[in-house]
Amino acid sequence: MTLILLCIALALGGCRALIGDQPDNGSNVDGAPANPGDDPIGGGGGGRVDPPPVIGGALREEPDPTVVDARGQSVDHFDIGADGRTLVVYWWGGNTACFGLKEVMVEVQRGTPIITVLEGVRGDHVGMACTAEAVLKSAVVTLDEPIVADAAADAPPGHLELPADGLKVEPVAGVQRSTLHAVSGYRLSADGLTLSAYYVGGTEDCYALAGATAERDDEGLLTISISEGQLPELPVACPDIGVSKFVDFQLDDPLVVVAAFDSGGDAPQDY
Questions:
Q1: C or N terminus of the chain, fewer CB within 10 Å?
Q2: Would you say 127 and 21 are in contact if contact means Cβ atoms under 8 Å apart?
Q3: Which of 77, 76, 64 has its CA nearest to residue 120?
Q4: Sign, CA torsion 49/51/56/58
Q5: Cα(268)–Cα(111) distance, integer angstroms
């Protein structure tokens, strides 16, 4: 009879899950701050005091040392700063009041970072009911070495929020007086194989992509080269207006790997 009453109470309260008390798992990854808006993984106080900020359309999480029962989460995508080593990981997690980030584990094998996002129950919500919902979250990690470089320039550390309305471009024949353009940041698919390189170019009526290459050296560093120039026989003067653009590269080997998990979903496997 008690069990029936409990089920009725849960049904009246909406879709909820009872959170059990489980052992702790994992430790934080240290990293130097990328810029004032991007605190990388490392350290951090316990418990949720203020709601996390929304950055790039996702809630920016920091490690919570009180989290227990941490399990691996599916990654949605990555953003990479122009410096090639500031990595923003996006994943789908649970209600932030109840579920928090334990840590983002980074292991490098054969020059490729392997990322594991561990999320679990916040210490102050163990054994309590919590609404079930999917929330897009993100966290910043700073890699020891860059995984991608820009042929045009060396970029300072940090991550710039990539524009949501960037213009996708492809090379155009006949472009004149092309020059290298600096990359402002990268977006990488969860499988690590589709890399979008963002840059600021000229207006479509006057300027076009002359060429774009992605070459990986023996150490595994991927170098991106983007050149843009003027279209031939322009009928009008070109306005000096910057336009956010991006080029897609399909890589032969993943730039970043998301750790695989065993059948229980909480034990990362080697790459």
A1: N
A2: yes
A3: 64
A4: positive
A5: 18
Smallest CA-to-CA distance from 139 within 258, 53, 260 is with 53
Tokens in use for 264?
A: 């229980």
Give the separation between CA 15 and CA 4, rounded to whole angstroms.
Answer: 16
Q: How far apart are CA 119 and CA 69, in angstroms?
A: 8
Distance of alpha carbon 116 from alpha carbon 129, whole angstroms: 27
What is d(CA 248, CA 270) in angstroms, rounded to the nearest whole number?
28
What DSSP state is assigned to residue 179? Answer: E
Give CA 224 to chain center in angstroms. 19
Rounded-to-integer distance, Cα 271 and Cα 257, Å: 8
Residues 6+ apart with CB under 8 A from 5: none
- The edge-to-edge listing of strands for the beta sheet with 75-81 is 54-55, 58-60, 135-142, 86-93, 75-81, 183-189, 194-201, 243-250, 167-168
Per-residue pLDDT of 81-122, as tens digits, reads 999 999 999 999 998 889 999 999 999 998 899 999 999 999
